[in-house]
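This part of the workshop introduces the protein records we will be handling. An example says more than a description, so a record of this kind follows.
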Amino acid sequence: MASGAKNFAWISGQSLDLDYYAYLSHFHEGICKAIEENKVDETHLLALHFAIMANWWSSDWDLYLNIFVAVMEHLIYARSPSGCKQTSSYIWRYLLSFHRRISRRLTANRLYSMHLLQNQLLSDLMQCEITQRILG
């Protein structure tokens, strides 16, 4: 929604409305609160994905990508290894792969950390499938 307002303002040659900044502030506060309360979930991951895409050409892109990777890392390592709730792993792998492929501005360290996360997701997914075949 914020991206649409930003694009409309740019096309029409108008300055950004205060509502845009209020919405953006609300988004930032929501992400920060979820991180502080350790309540980050997939909805935050998807919101960050859209924030990255909406800010592709702005200086905020790198900030959102760093938070995206940190949230992804938290979600991967916070899961119960025996729970085998891997329904979202395919989406997570797609998002990681997408950002790795299109992000030409990544540092070698960021690219490597994303590579490690993707390998961890694949490993978890394979382990889950093997466990499900053994159990039933």
Observations:
- The radius of gyration is 17 Å.
- Residues 69 and 113 are 8 Å apart (CA to CA).
- The helical segments are 2-12, 18-36, 42-54, 60-78, 89-102, 108-135.
